Amino acid sequence: MAFWAHKRVLVTGATGFLGSWMSGTLVEEGASVVGLVRDLSPTLDPADGVARNQYTVALGRLEDYETLLRIVNEHEIDTVFHLGAQAIVGTANRNPLSTFEANIRGTWNLLEACRQAGTVKRIVVASSDKAYGEQPSLPYTEDMPLQGTHPYDVSKSCTDLIARTYYETYSLPVCVTRCGNFFGGRDMNFNRIVPDTIRSVILGRAPVLRSDGTFIRDYIYVKDVVNAYMLLAERMDNAGVIGHAFNFSNEEKLSVLQLTHKILTLMDREDLSPVILNQAQAEIRDQYLSASKARTMLGWKARFTIDEALSETIAWYRNHFTHFNSLEPARAAN
Question: What is the CATH number of domain 8-182+219-248?
């Protein structure tokens, strides 16, 4: 609480999956949060259950530089968590231009606004494991080149490099995070494997997979991500941390089928055999991360095992669907 008390924090993408968790946690820790929101969401309230006098909604788009400059300047922002992005791979493949506008232009707009305002002491920019692209060996480590190929991957490679530019050229206090696939309660994007599988089981239906099920991914619980990002921001008072990129991972690589079967086991529905469509296109087959640098430099490690995190997530969705009766038709996930 002491570190975040009264700090003025901007969270971009504040009603997104990660942004809503981040905003609520920061307010609970005593920060005064400004949440940049493009579209108001009826399902994700970033200040749900926390003090409203510590949370301000700022409507705007990352593509609008003048709005970002006004927000950073007028609210005298001290810390920025840049989480806002077009984050769905399939959407990026269908419409790369909107993804490039939000993820690439949005990043340079925000960093330039921070540079011009002059009040910001720490900026955490969310990149992705997909920024690494295809590599000859795994796990990904932070010294590997950034070489995304597909639209979403390229947008994150660029995000990462732009952040580096602003640190190297203008000494802007920036760090970059690279994570795998987030999961947890409040994720309403049912084209993702975890929420879609849980919803399918609640409906009594077999989960449907877009891929052949063998793609390997790195999955991390949203609460561990929030903890990682906030710890990194706190450590940025150490000049030796600023300018670095960090992988965050629980370092348990899983195939899509392995993850699906974990969920089925935890929900006691192993009788529901996954339907495999094998239709995934323009995606990297295997991606997983080493978190050695974060352990060494930041003293970070994941607090939750995959099974513990999945159990909490399943409980959240069971409660959500019971109270809100918001089940939708199942769609193919990862």
Answer: 3.40.50.720
